[in-house]
Design a protein that fits this description.
This protein is α/β, with parallel strands linked by helices and 189 residues long. It has one domain: 3-Layer(aba) Sandwich (Pyruvate-ferredoxin Oxidoreductase, domain 3). The chain is 37% helix and 21% strand. The protein contains 7 helices and 7 strands. It has helices spanning 16-29, 103-106, 109-112, 125-133, 139-150, 155-165, 169-184, and strands at residues 4-11, 33-40, 48-56, 71-74, 94-98, 120-123, 186-187. The protein has a 7-stranded mixed β-sheet with strand order 2-3-1-4-5-6-7, with helices on one face. A hairpin with a 7-residue loop joins strand 2 (33-40) and strand 3. The radius of gyration is 15 Å and the shape is globular.
Length: 189
């Protein structure tokens, strides 16, 4: 596998940084090399946040932000109106959006149609997190949806990483939410 680079767009308090960390731990569990790191603007609840994760079969020496991601995870679709989320996304990249709305309702239908069939996915991650965890933290659901969409990481590795990050009942609730996200993610046709 060549290096797989992920950029996560969210807002402060949504767990974008923890999501990148869990994704990197999932990669480690599959004997891959990984790195995860954030990029903050103003560090406050609701402010735009970007986190990055790289996964490779060999040591990763890059240290700069992910400018040409293989996958974008958009935890808050309102960011499409304020940030150039699509910047640098590879032509065959994956787009996973936390929404129950249609892509046309989000105003990104034309951009999404530029990606290959099966590379654009939606999942109601916040709703699933509230339902199963009791908090609007979509990160575990988003990385589970990435596992389903791309196959770059296994769901079993994602759930193990969730349990490492959040031991006990919180972790188990996030595992249930992640499984629901994996099962309910929908590919855009």
């Amino acid at each position: 596998m060549p290096m797989f680079q992920v950029r996560i767009h969210g807002r402060g308090g949504q767990g974008a940084v923890s999501g990148a960390e869990m994704l990197s731990v999932a990669a480690f569990l599959e004997d891959k090399h990984a790195q995860a790191f954030p990029s903050f603007g103003s560090e406050r609840m609701g402010a735009p946040v970007v986190a990055f994760c790289r996964v490779d079969n060999k040591e990763i020496r890059l240290r700069e932000p992910v400018l040409e991601p293989d996958a974008l995870l958009v935890q808050d679709p309102s960011l499409f109106n304020s940030v150039d989320v699509f910047a640098g996304l590879k032509a065959d990249g994956y787009l996973i959006i936390n929404t129950a709305k249609s892509l046309d309702d989000l105003g990104i239908g034309d951009a999404a149609r530029q990606l290959p069939e099966g590379h654009v996915w939606t999942v109601a991650a916040t709703e699933l997190a509230v339902q199963h965890v009791g908090r609007p933290s979509p990160n575990a659901c988003m990385i589970a949806a990435l596992a389903r969409a791309s196959g770059a990481i296994k769901l079993e590795s994602v759930t193990s990483a969730i349990r490492k990050k959040f031991p006990g009942t919180v972790g188990e609730a996030n595992v249930v939410a992640a499984q629901a996200a994996f099962d309910n993610a929908k590919a855009f046709k």
